[in-house]
Amino acid sequence: MDPNASSVHPSPMPLSIKATQVKLVLLGESAVGKSSLVIQFVQQGYVENREPTIGAAFLTKKYQTGEQSIKFEIWDTAGQERFHSLAPMYYRNAQAAIVVYDITKAASLDKAKTWVKELQRQASSDIVIALVGNKLDLVQEDEHERQVLAEDAQAYAEEGNLLFYETSAKTSENVDAVFGAIANQIPAPHVSKALSGGRSLNGPNGSFNLMEAPKDTASGCAC
């Protein structure tokens, strides 16, 4: 998959079609831009210097692909190591995952690979996983900022049967394309199954809803 492909914007949602739910989780090291990716997809906006996510945040977005109408139920998890143990309750029964790294920080790809291994070992066997290298805008401004070659990350993704994109949450480049590719990979019969994992807050489309956090954490917005 071409990491520099143009973004594909979702088609308007026909009112007559009932959307089916897809649970999607975002994983990755802190400060790679997970939350900014989601906010760009859901709200078409970008905020500089977002506060780190605490625990997880929950957002929804309806998406139309062909004749299939999908409601993404997105769990944006915290990247700090102290929250790692909470991750399984968010990716449990998830039908899709986006694992994000920072293309200007080589170590973040190593962490992303750790998440991929964990998902392949513990998540649903048919989960759709996308590996996403974020902060493409920084590299476009100065190629010397790049620490992860696109061809290296793509080779790893192909070996693991992962979707692969490079994105910019700031400029929105390829953000919609990632979610569109995931939507097209979800098997139609599977997408109609009721979600049994995670607690859906079912807020208005495009709204930002904070999770009900465990007692030792709080909910928050994102970086």
Automatic annotation (TrEMBL):
Coiled coil: none annotated. InterPro entries: P-loop_NTPase, Small_GTP-bd, Small_GTPase. It comes from Phycomyces blakesleeanus (strain ATCC 8743b / DSM 1359 / FGSC 10004 / NBRC 33097 / NRRL 1555). PANTHER family: PTHR47978. The keyword RNA-binding does not apply. NCBIfam families: small_GTP (TIGR00231). Keywords: Nucleotide-binding. CDD domains: Rab5_related (cd01860). This is Uncharacterized protein. The keyword Coiled coil does not apply. It comes from the Eukaryota.
